[in-house]
Amino acid sequence: MSKIEKALKKAGDERGNLQIVPAAAEGGRTAPWTALVGRQIDLPETISLMAGSERRLLDADDLWERGIIHPQHTEEPAVQVFRELRTKIIQQSEGRNAVILVAAVSEGNGGTFIARNLAAAFAFDSAKTALLVDCNLRNPSVQRLLFNASLPGLADYFENPELDVSKIIHPVGIARLRAISTGELRRFARSISFP
Questions:
Q1: CA end-to-end span of the chain, whole Å?
Q2: pLDDT digits (tens, 9 = 90+) for 140-176
Q3: Are 146 and 172 within 8 A, CB to CB?
Q4: Most buried of 60, 114, 139, 171 (most Cβ within 10 A)?
Q5: Radius of gyration of the chain measured on its C-alpha atoms
Q6: Cα–Cα distance between 153 and 179 in angstroms, integer?
Q7: C-alpha–C-alpha distance, residues 134 and 143, integer Å
Q8: What is the DSSP letter of 30?
Q9: Could you report the per-residue pLDDT of 42-98, keeping only the tens digit for each?
């Protein structure tokens, strides 16, 4: 294990127990915590709670079937490449969250494979989380990762902006990885045209 990987692991272990607690607004100001006693508030899903909210974590065979790297198979070249890419992105982002767009130049060139495995590589780091958003309306693929492919997604949100964003973010069976599928492309698909 390289010095960088050891340092990242140590930092991840130290940060893995942190929880983010939102400030509750009341009258445009932050309410004191005493005002929150007895009130139901929805806390965001923390890193330490994400694994607990999974119905079932995927095992090595499930990951293989879905074309996703396995974190324990460190001798595999694909695992090494995605870990190195993740490390370089972390270094370049200088501690800030990274937003990464993976766009395929042409159909069938591996854009889905790269997006899926890069998201998994981040999620396999105990101090990181990943959100995989499928914006490929022509050939969606993220719904195949979900346990229920008919769950609402991006198109549902576009059709109904009052829909709470938390309703389109779904677990995929990997701790700290969530996904937004394209959802049902009913009216939305008819309103756009593909070249």
A1: 47
A2: 888 888 888 888 999 999 888 888 898 999 999 998 9
A3: yes
A4: 171
A5: 19
A6: 9
A7: 8
A8: E
A9: 445 555 555 556 667 888 888 888 889 988 888 888 999 999 999 999 999 887 888
